[in-house]
C-alpha cells in the first residue's frame, strides 16, 4: 500500500498474491519485496509487473522470506526466517505469526541470510543457523550487516569486507524482547523494534524438549499472552544499546517496526490497524 501522511489516506499499489513482508527499493527503481510465500520479488510499480528474483538458495527452497536490505552496488540481502512456512488458516489467509511462535518453541535454527547478485540473480547463503532470522540492515560503510535472531533474543553481525570478512558473531544478546525489524538511524546507528517482551514460559521450558512438544499441540489461543508492552531499542553505530523506549498503555502494542524520517519515528504494529508517529524532539 502507498500511504499519504498528510491526507492520512492509503491506496493499494499491487497485489503480490502471497504474503508481503519487508521491502526496499532496488538499484533499478523496482520495489524489492520479501514475500513469505513466494520469495524475493521485484515489482515495477508503474506496470505492476512482478519478477521472482529468488526462491531457492543452496539446494533449499526459500520458505519464509522476511526482510530486505540493498547495498549501494545493487546487491540484495534478505532473510529466510525459517523452514517452517506460514500456516494457512481456514479463512484462506496465511498466518506468519503462528510460524514465528512455533519456531521460538522448537528452537530449530534453520533461518538464513541470502545474498542475491542483482545482475546475475545468483543466490548465496552468507549466514545460517539462525532461530528465526528477522530484520536485516547494512552498516554505513557496508562492511558488515546485522540481523535479528528472534528466537535467541539476539542481534548477530556478519562481516562482509575487511580482515574479518566472513566472520559471524553475536553482538547483542539476552534482549528484553523478541527483535523484529531493524532500521537505520540518522546518526549511523539503528532502531530495533522488539515485538513483545520475553516470555517467562518459553525461557523456562527451553531445556525440556518433551514439554515443548506437548505445548505445541495446545492451541495458541490457550497459551498466556504477555502484556501489551511496546519496546524500541536505540543502538549506536558501534552496536551499543543507548536507550530503550517503552509504552505499556496498550495504545500501540507489539511494535514491529520503527523508521526514522525527518526527526520523527514512524511506528508500525502487527496487531494494530494504524501507525503512530513519535516526535524525537520530545525525548
Report the oligomer: single chain
How many domains in all? 1
Could you tell me the CATH topology label: Neuraminidase
Class inferred from helices and paired strands: mainly beta
Corresponding CATH architecture: 6 Propeller
The gyration radius over C-alpha positions equals: 18 Å
The secondary-structure element order is EEEEEEEEEEEEHEEEEEEEEHHEEEEE
In the CATH hierarchy, what is the superfamily?
TolB, C-terminal domain
3D shape? globular
- Major beta-sheet overview: 4 strands, antiparallel
Taking pLDDT < 50 over at least 5 consecutive residues as the criterion, the unreliable ranges are none
Termini separation: 30 Å
- Helical segment count: 3
Query: Major sheet: order of its strands?
Result: 3-4-5-6
Number of strands: 25
Q: Roughly what fraction of the amino acids lie in strands?
A: over 45%
Amount of helix: under 10%
Q: Write down the CATH class.
A: Mainly Beta
Task: Describe this structure as you would to a colleague.
It is a single chain. This protein has 283 residues and is mainly beta. It has a single domain (2-282), classed as Neuraminidase (6 Propeller), CATH 2.120.10.30. It has three helices and 25 strands. The strands form eight sheets. It has a four-stranded antiparallel β-sheet, with no helix packed on it. A four-stranded antiparallel β-sheet has the order 9-10-13-14, with no helix packed on it. It has a four-stranded antiparallel β-sheet with strand order 15-16-17-18, with no helix packed on it. It is globular, with a radius of gyration of 18 Å. The mean pLDDT is 90.
Amino acid at each position: 500500500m502507498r500511504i499519504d501522511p498528510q491526507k492520512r489516506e492509503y491506496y493499494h499499489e499491487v497485489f503480490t498474491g502471497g504474503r508481503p513482508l519487508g521491502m526496499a527499493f532496488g538499484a533499478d527503481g523496482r520495489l524489492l519485496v520479501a514475500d513469505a510465500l513466494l520469495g524475493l520479488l521485484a515489482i515495477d510499480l508503474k506496470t505492476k509487473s512482478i519478477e521472482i528474483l529468488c526462491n531457492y538458495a543452496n539446494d533449499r527452497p526459500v520458505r519464509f522470506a522476511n526482510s530486505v536490505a540493498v547495498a549501494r552496488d545493487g546487491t540484495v540481502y534478505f532473510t529466510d526466517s525459517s523452514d517452517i512456512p506460514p500456516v494457512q488458516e481456514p479463512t484462506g489467509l496465511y498466518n506468519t505469526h503462528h510460524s514465528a511462535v512455533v519456531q521460538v518453541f522448537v528452537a530449530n535454527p534453520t533461518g538464513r541470510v541470502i545474498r542475491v547478485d542483482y545482475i546475475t540473480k545468483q543466490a548465496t547463503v552468507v549466514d545460517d543457523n539462525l532461530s528465526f532470522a528477522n530484520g536485516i540492515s547494512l552498516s554505513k560503510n557496508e562492511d558488515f550487516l546485522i540481523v535479528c535472531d528472534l528466537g535467541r533474543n539476539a542481534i548477530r553481525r556478519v562481516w562482509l569486507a575487511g580482515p574479518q570478512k566472513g566472520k559471524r558473531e553475536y553482538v547483542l544478546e539476552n534482549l528484553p524482547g523478541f527483535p523484529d525489524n531493524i532500521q537505520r538511524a540518522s546518526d549511523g546507528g539503528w532502531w530495533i523494534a522488539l515485538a513483545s517482551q520475553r516470555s517467562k514460559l518459553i525461557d523456562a521450558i527451553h531445556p525440556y524438549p518433551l514439554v515443548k512438544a506437548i505445548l505445541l499441540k495446545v492451541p495458541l489461543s490457550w497459551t498466556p499472552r504477555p502484556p501489551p508492552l511496546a519496546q524500541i531499542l536505540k543502538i549506536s553505530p558501534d552496536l551499543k544499546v543507548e536507550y530503550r523506549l517503552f509504552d505499556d498503555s496498550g495504545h500501540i502494542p507489539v511494535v514491529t517496526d520503527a523508521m526514522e524520517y525527518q526527526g520523527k519515528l514512524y511506528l508500525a504494529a502487527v496487531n494494530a490497524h494504524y501507525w503512530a508517529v513519535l516526535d524525537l524532539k520530545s525525548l
